[in-house]
Every structure is written in structure tokens, then in C-alpha cells.
Amino acid sequence: MFTGIVSELGSVTTARPSGGGAAITIAAPQTCIGLTVGDSIAVNGVCLTAVGFGDGRFTVEAVSETLQRTNLGELSEGSVVDLERPVAAAGGRFDGHVVQGHVDGVGTVRSIESEGTSKRIRITAPGALAQYLVEKGSVTVDGVSLTITAVSAVADPDPWFEVVLIPHTLDVTVLGVRAAGDRVNLEVDILAKYVERLMEARG
């Protein structure tokens, strides 16, 4: 979770193609303080995952979906970028989104397609959860906070959503070994459920 308050101006040292996406290394001494692999960092407002760091620099990976929808594909050596770490929380930082650990239902992996070194996964969801799934919204799959890249219509008789996983996520979570037909735990964004409840109360 971010606030939109830029904490440091970073300088791109390298931006190279990587598995259909891009690996971007940014010099940012302040942002690197306390940084660990797997942490979230907003780069020009885009939430990315740190996959490496050292010597006052960190590296993030952007999948093709991100490059197509943002200006990150235009970055090159010397580009200047806005940086923000997640909101500080008790004992750490607020990476990902609000996850309660209260599973709302079970989905099924419908398909997995490789996009370079990343993977696009389509997951069917219980009909009762379809209304809480929105493009660019958050969802938790087997405990992993992810961003939805595509979603079916709410009225679809067999609702689904898609996520794109970077190599780091594939390497360090169970999602890297999931296959078509596997069942996965789903938790939708609690904020969406609160909004629905408030609308009911006002209706």
C-alpha cells in the first residue's frame, strides 16, 4: 500500500529485456536502506517487486503486461524515476494489500501460458466472488498478494480472472508449481466487501 508521497528520485542504471519483460536496475541509496528481496517498490507509481539489490541499487522485473500499460517500457540508462516504499506498519512495511487470511472460496487453475520467463495464469472463481474481482484490483491466491490483469464479466456463468507472475514470484511461492486443474485458495479484497456492505446499508 502506498500514499503517493515520493520518497526518492532514482536513476536508471540499466534497463534490459528479460524473458519478454524487462529487468530494470535503479540507483537509489535511500530506497535501498532496509530493502530485502521480495519487497514492493512503486516506480513511477507502478508497484513492482525487488528481485535484487546492492551498492545502493536495486533491480525490479516488469512483465510485458506492465510495459504495455505503463511508461516503464520507455526507461533507459539515465532515466529518472519517482520511488516510494510501502506504508510503514508496526515492525515493517505494508507490502501487498490488506490480507486477512480468511479464505473466501476455492478457484481452479484453468490455464497457464508462458510470456517469456513470466507466466499468465487464468483461474476460475466461484460465482459469488465474481463481483469482487476487478481489473487492476488485488486478490490473494494461495496466500500470495497479486494484481488482476484481466477479468470476465460478473454475469459470466463460469467467471475467471488472470494474473501475471514474475520469475521471482514463481521461484519463491507455490504458484510456481501449480498446473492446470489445480485448486487454489482465494481471498478477495476486503475493501470491496466493505463497500458492498455500506451500499447495502444505504440502499
Report what the structure shows.
By secondary structure, this protein is mainly beta. The chain is built from four helices and 14 strands. It folds into two domains: 8-93, Beta Barrel (Elongation Factor Tu (Ef-tu), domain 3), CATH 2.40.30; 105-202, Elongation Factor Tu (Ef-tu), domain 3 (Beta Barrel). The longest helix is centred in the last third of the chain and has 13 residues, at 190-202. The chain is globular, with a radius of gyration of 18 Å.
Topology:
Elements: E1 8-18, E2 21-27, H1 29-32, E3 40-43, E4 46-54, E5 57-62, H2 64-69, E6 80-84, E7 88-89, E8 92-93, E9 105-115, E10 118-124, E11 138-141, E12 144-151, E13 160-165, H3 167-172, E14 183-188, H4 190-202
Antiparallel strand pairs: 1-2, 1-6, 2-5, 3-4, 3-6, 4-5, 7-8, 9-10, 9-14, 10-13, 11-12, 11-14, 12-13
